[in-house]
Amino acid sequence: MMNQVEMIKAVSDAMDALGVAVVSIGVLWGLILFMKNLVTQKTDDAYKVFRVQIVRSLILGLEVLVAGDVIRTVAISPTLMSVGVLGAIVVIRCFLSWSLTLEIDGRWPWQAPRKE
Question: How confident is the model at residue 1 (pLDDT cuts 50, 70, 90)?
């Protein structure tokens, strides 16, 4: 029978695996859409759709990976060093998420959408 720490470790490992799966499946799905759109759309449009799909899967995958890191750090080893490392990871991943959002939307997440 699993003790509490082993169970939490298994959950955080599953979250990590899910995050990797989200990114991988998202990229594969984007590639499938890209090939389909090459036939029906202009190459530039197909490329833009492909890029947006990859960025969205990266953002979602990063969020799941952060959740796994939070579970692991808070529940298993809440030392000052591990919390500091978690903080650094969260800051880096937040910056990546914001940068990817800027790439998709052309604006930072906290900016109002452009009126067209």
Answer: low
- Closest by CA to 30, choosing from 11, 52, 45, is 52
Q: Concatenated DSSP letters for 2-57? A: --HHHHHHHHHHHHHHHHHHHHHHHHHHHHHHHHHHHHHS-HHHHHHHHHHHHHHH
Q: Which residue has the tokens 């997440």?
A: 109
Question: Which pair of structure tokens corresponds to residue 98?
Answer: 């914001």
Q: Which long-range contacts (CB under 8 A, 24 or more apart) does 86-94 make?
A: 90/66, 93/62, 93/65, 93/66
d(C-alpha 15, C-alpha 49), whole Å: 27
Read off the amino acid at residue 72. R
Q: Where are the domains of the chain?
A: 4-105
Q: What pTM did the predictor assign?
A: 0.78
